[in-house]
């Protein structure tokens, strides 16, 4: 899984957790206000940075002008960060020594993270972790470790919402999800839980065929069949330490990622230790953290702000070795796919092609994964996932309409799921579904949109009950049906296995998707041995290849089982007709919404030319999805005035005269 590093600017990423390849845009932060329901730890900022509002309650004069100068102090903080982001590491280090205000901006951790991953380290490949992104950047530039600076905290605070926000988010607990006692008390296990003794037929009849998520529990006798159960990040380091992996924007050896994860864990331990010491002075807490830093390895720097959402290891290379080592196990309920669970699908006869002993057929029968018919051309589908607490993946759907299962080997995960037709609050999907825009980090989404999600889709008063939540412990398995939105966050440091697959349950949906949206197909390969080289994109299909892969898969499916292929293609045709009817109904509703308002109808532009879309005024007035309008209002009131800029499209300016003011 590739992703850009977290930054304050809009970027494009690929969400993890099961290989989502739809681009996800991370939105610029708009609201620095604290969340209403999340617990915030009031540890002081290492550089004595405080929220801007605190300046209203102090008698001391602001030091902004004296520390930034008369010109720089007049600029918005966002613009100052943009300016400093264009400096070299050497220039940033020099700027840090000018004044306490300059030091506050020059030590902004996201600047050093971007410098490290996009500049100093080619393709985001770091060779070692040194406690913070600043220390790691310095070590890669100089070739040696640079000890953390002494804990010299400015006596006078510097007030800035922009600089304080990462600190506040990093020290914000994600509600009841971060402590086991709170999880049990809140009774969040809303995802249906089923016994480990559930048969394959019952699982497919009651869940897979109905596209219902569930959690398969561990055996009551404690005799789990998962050979890798208990594997930790440290265990991965000991077994595969020199193997290179991908963790979103970071490429590193497993041992380096393990050091990074240990650093994040240590920082979270300091936060929890501060929670337990509620009767101690905050300054004493800060001094204690600083005084104990020397006792820890160089990968822990108490003077830095932790990553609010740590990078998430999501790798497709190690699973091959895990499979060779006998440590990759498919849950028994998903290891085969009985046709009898799908009344319209025939049961293959002994004389049918499905009884062939070919390797492709045997793999499809054994794994219940029909993409195995494409052999080496199929997308990567087995993934090793690992990360410290608070790491995870934001809202996304799995690629190519596949379903997925996810089994933690250690640690536990909090899951939120919504049906395919319910877009999560705070998430915006392009009209063709190719791009998804979401908040920068998991904790930011929880802070800004979790309450709204509960009120709209929870099981309380006013909610429609569509939201499913659950905690999956080590040894349990989450089943995520095709098309379901899901968000995952690690509650403790842990390792997990996940796999995308294509069974009979989602086969018609996948065929309809591949036929009608080839530009959104992702992950399929040329299948030419050695084509991948050093760049994993070298083996990716071209646009022309994507257009052909549907026909090739249908041909392989017919060769495997002709009756099954006919059943699936008929189902895909029905889905195509249904979605066409929905599009027509939506278009008719949009036209009806503009009637009698004086606005230009979708049939013509304001200048009388042929039309291709409704005017911007119709789009504004009709409002679209109620939840999206509500979220837009929430963002607008969070520090930015109303603007037509986001609504006007090309050629819309001339339509202003038609607005019925």
From TrEMBL:
Report residue spans for region: Disordered: 1-46, 274-302, 338-362, 641-661
Xref: Pfam families: Cupin_8, F-box-like
Q: Which region is the signal sequence?
A: none
Molecular function via GO = cis-regulatory region sequence-specific DNA binding
Identify this protein by name.
Answer: Clavaminate synthase-like protein
Bias-annotated ranges (Low complexity):
1-21, 352-362
Sequence ranges assigned to domain F-box in this UniProt record? 69-115
Note the superkingdom of the native organism.
Eukaryota
GO cellular component entries: nucleus
Q: Where is the composition biased (Acidic residues)?
A: 651-661
Residue ranges of domain JmjC in the record: 350-518
Q: Which InterPro entries match?
A: Cupin_8, F-box-like_dom_sf, F-box_dom, JmjC_dom, JMJD6_ArgDemeth/LysHydrox
